[in-house]
Amino acid sequence: MLRKNILFLIITYACATAPAIYSASPIAPQEQAAWAASNTPELLEYNIYFHIGLISAKSGYGKLCFTKETDKQGQTVYHGQLAGKSLSIVEHIMRVRDTLDCYFNEDMVPLSFRKGTHEGSYNALANYSYHPHWHNEGAAKRLNNVDSTSVVLQRWRKKGKDAAVNRVVNYTNQGPAYDMLSVFYSIRHLDYEHMKKGKRLKFVCYDGTSQQTIHVDYRGKEKCEMRSGKTRESFLIHLSFATKGQDETPLKVWLSTTPDHRPLKAIIGLKRIGSIRCEIQE
């Protein structure tokens, strides 16, 4: 995975944290927590730091807004929006200027996803629409009733004075299909309180023509040490990417034990130098 994607992944995961589609392996009903924030607007803000030795430099920030809305058909939907921006020296190696919007229903079934990218002379817009096919058309529109999902991607790209490029891509996925923001809402709202330590969940990511496997490993409860010196009760998970059959360096994420499971901190070590850390603004 490119280093830029590592930074953006930290921003994406900590706040929820080329276009992607995710499909999750089945999760037992008892491991699914209730959607804790379903009736509560949410605003979370994070700082991202680059660490090398004793040096710690602020390198970016992210902001997530969550609201409950009503769509044009009068249905209840949930809207998550994430804005990420890199700062300082990181601007030269992994610049981030992205905005993400996702919509999903009350059972976390994705409906649509939009990603806007603005990086100097390069601008891009990707719109995904999700069309689940149900095991039982008459049953509730729940994740466990999704047989397969058709996804339509409409993508516009323009760099400098070059002509704009438009492209439409169709995907079909067995089971639920997620976008790169709503999938982390789903991971965030698993029932870790009753999950067995060592439990591993698998998500398959289609990034253009390539495929990645994302593993989420639950490591149990742990004290999370904040930059302020305070500690918070948390659930620790490791999120890693399988490349050529081997997991890369995991992204360590500490989730609060409060009902909303808000991410408190995320750390990933870089292969050759230092680490990138993200922490909630308290």
Structural class by sheet pairing and helices: mainly beta
Order of helices and strands: HEEEEEEEEEHEEEEEEE
DSSP strand count: 16
- What gap, in angstroms, lies between the N and C termini? 31 Å
- Overall mean pLDDT: 77
Low-confidence stretches: 1-7, 14-38
Strand content: over 45%
Q: How many H/I helices?
A: 2
Task: Give the overall form.
Answer: globular
Radius of gyration over alpha carbons?
Answer: 18 Å
- Biggest sheet details: 16 strands, antiparallel
Number of domains: 1
Give the % helix: under 10%
Short description:
7% of the residues lie in helices and 55% in strands. The protein has 282 residues and is mainly beta.
How would you portray this structure in words?
The chain has 282 residues and is mainly beta. The chain has one domain. The chain is built from two helices and 16 strands. The chain has helices at 3-15, 182-188, and strands spanning 20-24, 42-52, 55-70, 76-86, 97-104, 110-119, 122-134, 146-159, 165-174, 200-207, 210-225, 231-243, 246-247, 251-256, 263-269, 275-280. The chain has a 16-stranded antiparallel β-sheet that branches. The protein starts with a helix and ends with a strand. Residues 1-7 and 14-38 have low confidence and may be disordered.
Structural key phrases:
282 residues; mainly beta; 16-stranded antiparallel sheet; 16 strands; 7% helix; 55% strand; disordered N terminus
Topology:
Elements: H1 3-15, E1 20-24, E2 42-52, E3 55-70, E4 76-86, E5 97-104, E6 110-119, E7 122-134, E8 146-159, E9 165-174, H2 182-188, E10 200-207, E11 210-225, E12 231-243, E13 246-247, E14 251-256, E15 263-269, E16 275-280
